[in-house]
Specification:
Shape: elongated
Strand order of the largest sheet: 6-13-8-11
Structural class: alpha+beta
Low-confidence stretches: 602-652
Number of helices: 21
Distance between the termini: 51 Å
Mean pLDDT: 78
Radius of gyration: 33 Å
Strand content: 15-25%
């Protein structure tokens, strides 16, 4: 209840914890300055007593690994770490950065104060350490470039050894802004202490912007930007140098920035597969020009893997706020860019019932989705809970169980809970649990249905293919072939007037919504009333006397509109569902229809023992989901396992 904590044990990986400290209380992690063998490090906290921890590693290499693992928890950076997060990282080596860090002095600005103005001579190099600033092109506030947060360097061109002017105007945005500064005199003194070769190297490396633009062009969703827009984007970038074994972020951290690898390489790790000896599963590695963490630019989500440097690496770091504003000023819609990435993931999963969704609807669908992360053994949903979401597994594994008996396991690319998308009052018939750290893409029921708001026939097709024998009456009414079968079934039982009435009323409502003139709409209403509503009419439908009187009154008062027959339509659908629909679904005609329909194949193959609900078991044989069913009583069935072939869709 006190928040996340860190603990450490003895060298032999003993399960006995020696000490704990609060993870969010760490302010700084650094090498102990009196450590002769460079194997002792300090963890400084921001607790009231400013408690610090002095820990000794086995050797220098092990100490470096500990430093790399703990740095992501630090809320403050040392002056050297701050330099490593600026463009100076391209020009200075570790010793040079250490020397420059000794010259840095702190300066504070209040909200609204100008830190520098475009066109003014650069007299100092400033590195933002706390707070946020606004950057502008020119000398006024009209040409807003964006909000920048730590760390942003201003005036690094002083290290070129010549006079220059600021190309941006920067003003404090937050209540207080802190910078570390070094003035021109100190920079000149530092450069004079360098060899001619070293000074030339600094000059060459500070012209790094061209290389950065080249790296940005390697990112698919940025490469279409013009050179001018990419150049503008570089104004909002931060840079970060990480040593070998330094962790950039941990799996489960909340992400707010995106990274492009300028040079070096990182490894992608899954810490949930630790083998008990400190070793973790390596999922892959990324080299120069690669990128990671882009989802953090469009939504608040947790990191799905741990990223650690394989060697000395320089990263281009782009924070969400800065990125949104810079791209906005360049006329680029960040939402559209990132939605394409989510859409790409939908297509990569190759979910069969997404084939019915037009490409133009994917952006709207992506906006409704949410990335959800679950810990090992955490329950995603339980049996008998009401279903309101559909899930796709992005990473990890999900166990499906019923009455504490495991039915199956599903991995990345599989999906579950799709029945909840199409059936009202859907109760989960099994429990889904993350077997390890698992990342899911979830979609709410209402969001899925809204995609088909202008095409109910397509939704009906999806619903029938998912639900099968559990299809609801509106799915059958809106599905052209199923509607025709239902009508034949009712005609044979002298009850076709109800479905015919529903069809004509639907056409009437569409015409009214399309703006048909009152005179023609009145004539259409008269035909429906003469045929279905009046007493002793040709095909009088079974509605109450009060409902009949209300419709006739609207007609007499010249007040017909799209809602005139709505109540009667609902009543007729209710009566059809109550009296005829269940028997129709059990009829040979409907069963043959389902057999001819390519039902969506389940992405897993659970095996059932005796005692499973018969309706549920039948749905699984059709390729439906074990995860949801309607609130109806089932019949205890026998033992028949599901069979599924990955080469073709399952059929009834």
């Amino acid at each position: 209840e006190d928040g996340p904590s860190l603990s450490y044990a003895t060298m032999d990986m003993s399960s006995v914890v020696k000490e704990k400290l609060q993870a969010d209380s760490i302010s700084e992690v650094r090498i102990y300055k009196h450590s002769a063998k460079h194997r002792t490090f300090v963890i400084q906290t921001n607790e009231p007593d400013s408690k610090s921890w002095l820990l000794r590693a086995e050797n220098k290499e092990e100490c470096r690994r500990w430093m790399g693992a703990l740095l992501p928890f630090a809320s403050n950076f040392s002056p050297t770490d701050i330099i490593r997060r600026t463009g100076l990282v391209f020009a200075l080596d570790d010793l040079q950065m250490h020397r420059v860090s000794k010259m840095l002095r702190k300066q504070n600005f209040q909200r609204g104060q100008w830190i520098c103005k475009a066109g003014a001579e650069v007299k100092q190099c400033s590195m933002l350490t706390n707070g946020t600033v606004m950057a502008y092109r020119g000398t006024d506030s009209k040409h807003n470039l964006g909000v920048f947060q730590s760390v942003k360097v201003l005036g690094e061109m002083l290290f070129l050894g010549k006079s220059t002017v600021h190309n941006l105007s920067v003003r404090a945005r937050s209540k207080s802004v802190s910078v570390l500064k070094i003035d021109k005199r100190q920079v000149d003194s530092f450069l004079q202490g360098q060899s001619t070769k070293a000074r030339q190297h600094i000059v060459d490396q500070l012209n790094f912007k061209g290389g950065v633009v080249g790296r940005l062009k390697q990112v698919p969703f940025l490469k279409k930007l013009s050179d001018e827009n990419l150049e503008a984007l570089t104004q909002g970038l931060n840079y970060r140098a990480v040593r070998k074994d330094e962790v950039i972020f941990y799996e489960g951290d909340v992400g707010d920035c995106f990274y492009v690898i300028y040079s070096g390489a990182v490894e992608v790790l899954n810490v949930s597969h630790e083998d008990g000896k400190g070793n973790v599963l390596q999922l892959g590695s990324l080299g120069a020009g690669s990128w990671f963490g882009e989802i953090a630019l469009c939504m608040e989500s947790t990191r799905t893997a741990t990223i650690r440097a394989k060697e000395h690496t320089i990263l281009i770091e782009i924070f969400r706020d800065s990125f949104e504003t810079v791209l906005g000023s360049a006329g680029v819609d960040l939402g559209k860019l990132m939605l394409r990435r989510i859409i790409h993931s939908f297509k990569a999963f190759k979910l069969p019932f997404f084939d019915a969704i037009p490409c133009g609807k994917f952006p709207a669908m992506a906006k409704m989705c949410k990335i959800e992360c679950f810990k090992a053994k955490e329950i995603i949903f339980s049996e008998k809970q009401e279903g309101d979401k559909f899930y796709i597994i992005s990473r990890g594994e999900v166990i499906v169980s019923k009455e504490e008996k495991e039915l199956c396991r599903m991995g990345p690319g599989k999906y579950f809970g799709e029945i909840a998308l199409v059936i009202r009052d859907c109760l989960r018939t099994a429990t889904c649990t993350a077997s390890k750290k698992t990342t899911l893409l979830s979609m709410p029921k209402e969001g899925f249905r809204s995609i088909f708001s202008d095409n109910p026939e397509a939704l009906a097709d999806v619903e029938i293919k998912i639900a099968g024998r559990r299809s609801q009456i509106r799915s059958v009414l809106y599905h052209p072939k199923a509607n025709e079968l239902f009508k034949k079934y009712l005609t044979a039982r002298f009850a076709a007037e109800s479905i015919e009435f529903w069809k004509e009323v639907r056409i009437f409502r569409k015409l009214a919504e399309a703006g048909m003139d009152a005179g023609n709409l009145h004539k259409k209403a008269m035909k429906i009333i003469e045929k279905y509503i009046k007493t002793d009419s040709e095909k009088q439908v079974n509605i109450s006397a009060s409902m009949q009187a209300e419709i006739l009154k609207d007609f007499k008062d010249q007040n017909v509109n799209q809602s005139t027959f709505v109540s009667a339509e609902r009543e007729i659908v209710h009566l059809l569902e109550r009296d005829k629909f269940t028997a129709f679904k059990a009829s040979p005609e409907f069963q043959r229809f389902l057999g001819a329909t390519e039902a969506y194949s389940s992405p897993y193959s659970p095996r059932h023992g005796s005692g499973e609900i018969d309706d549920e078991r039948s749905a699984i044989r059709r390729g439906g989901s074990v995860i949801g069913r309607r609130r109806t009583k089932g019949v205890i069935g026998g033992n028949r396992p599901n069979t599924w072939s990955p080469s073709r869709p399952a059929r009834s």
